[in-house]
Amino acid sequence: MNRHTLKSFLVLTLTIGLFAPTLAQRKNLIGDLLQKSPELFRTVTSRPDLYDVQILYTQIDRDAQNRPLFRSYSYKLDKKRYFYPASTVKLPAVLLALEKLNELKINRNTPMLTDSAYARQTRVRADATAENGLPSVAHYAKKILLVSDNDAFNRLYEFVGQRDMNERLYRKGYRNLRIVHRLESPMNADQNRHTNPVRFVQDGKVLYEQPARVNTKPIRSDSIIRRGIGFMRNDSLIKEPFDFTRKNFFALEDQQAMLKAVLFPEAVPAKNRFNLNAGDYGFLYQYLSQLPRETTYPKYDSTFYDSYCKFLLTGDQKTSFPKSIRIFNKVGDAYGYLIDNAYIVDFERGVEFMLSAVISCNSDGIFNDDAYDYDKIGYPFLSNLGRVIFDYDAKRKRLWRPDVRKFQLKYDR
How far is CA 246 from the centre of its chain? Predict the structure, then answer.
């Protein structure tokens, strides 16, 4: 064994010895952390079926070449157990829209004009929040990543198309999902299978024209999905479980895997990556982490506080973030579900990890009544979870301090 081989072997041995926890630690790490702070988590952990929590925490360690090494811990994680994903489905829409533009060789800032061709479809020819007054994939993506704009998602859903959106993700290995409808839209299943005509126009010249499309192979759940004991319809209580069978689905495990593919593309198999260029990655990193107050177009007022779309760590607060911390994430909140899928980094302390979690905040079991326990249960739970995991991760020993300069970005203001 030569000196180089011996050195590599010793480094590998030390790394395994330092980072490989016992079987009990591997199995119960998150549960143990929750139990150590009963004053923060007892309400939720004492009724796991009611709050339907899932958590996935991934430690990140670096080798001597700064390559990331991942070790994941879970709590009640189940990729088949349904929860409504809300706005978390917007991240794959952004990624696929950017990927499609690259295939068409169209710049993401090119004006995108949407027409209508089917029931309930609407047109878009202008966007007053954009610097040039015109809609584009880039501007829609910004609004999605900054404040989770629903209409922006719908426009990217229409550009990519229902069938292509799902089939492209399946081919990339993200199979625990269904994206089958627009958000905050009155459309039925048939109308959601139809997507609008779209044109990309630059200086009066049509660069690409996409006709109206329809997915002729409906995408459905293999089983009936019902939750709760009732739901509101037109101010009347219907005393039967709410049907999620035709709603979107996006498993937490797939959510974190997709975010990892964006932030650490070199560390995931090629088949799981998206066809993005260096400019796309820089764009995504900026707007996954930029705060509304740092944004020029659109310009957001103070109602969009720092934690508006950052539930972990500070979701229960409306104060400014510490300057050393950045959160690259996508959240979702609807039907009582709160979700955050995040990469969290502290540049001063050399801390980085991924944390994804979902909690149901619907203790009365009634949907569409706007009586969800977001403020009382959901935001405090996710914020405390983020803080407890952050404190734990910050105290871990690392062989090498991470070089995370690629995530130290210049923001709009």
Answer: 21
**What confidence tens digit (pLDDT) does each residue in 249-291 have?**
999 999 999 999 999 999 999 999 999 999 999 999 999 999 9
Token pair belonging to 102? 């690259």
Q: Which SS3 state, helix, strand or coil, does residue 256 take?
A: helix
Give how far Cα 376 sits from Cα of 281, 363, 382, 383, Å: 37, 11, 11, 12
Q: Which residue has the tokens 């260029």?
A: 277
How are beta strands 325-334 and 337-346 bridged, if at all? antiparallel
The structure tokens listed for 269 are 């198999």
Q: What is the dihedral of CA 209, 211, 216, 221, to 10 degrees?
A: 60
The amino acid that residue 216 corresponds to is T
Count of positions (residues) in the chain: 413
CB-side neighbour CA atoms (13 Å) of 16: 6
179 close to 162: Cβ distance less than 8 angstroms: yes
Distance CA 391, CA 330 (A): 22
Question: Residue type at 146?
Answer: L
Domains of the chain (ranges, CATH numbers) = 23-407 (3.40.710.10)
Distances (CA, A) of 407 to 192, 285, 410: 37, 7, 10
Tell me the two tokens of residue 114.
Answer: 């949407």
Contact 218, 189 (CB under 8 A): yes
Instruction: Give Cα separations from 184 to 148, 181, 296 (angstroms).
Output: 12, 9, 26
Degrees (nearest 5) of the Cα angle 40, 42, 47? Answer: 140
Q: Residue 23: exposed, middle, or buried by beta-carbon count in 10 A (0-12, 13-18, 19+)?
A: exposed
CB contact burial 109-143 (16+ within 10 A = b; e otherwise): bbbbbbbeebeebeebeebebbeeebbbbbbbbbb
Look at residue 385 and tell me whether its pLDDT is greater than 50.
yes
User: Model confidence at 26, in pLDDT bands (50, 70, 90)?
Assistant: low
How far from each other are the two terminal CA atoms of the chain, in whole angstroms?
A: 55
Helix, strand, or coil (residue 161): coil
Tell me what the pLDDT averaged over the chain comes to. 93
Q: What is the DSSP letter of 375?
A: I
The CA distance from 165 to 161, in Å, is 6
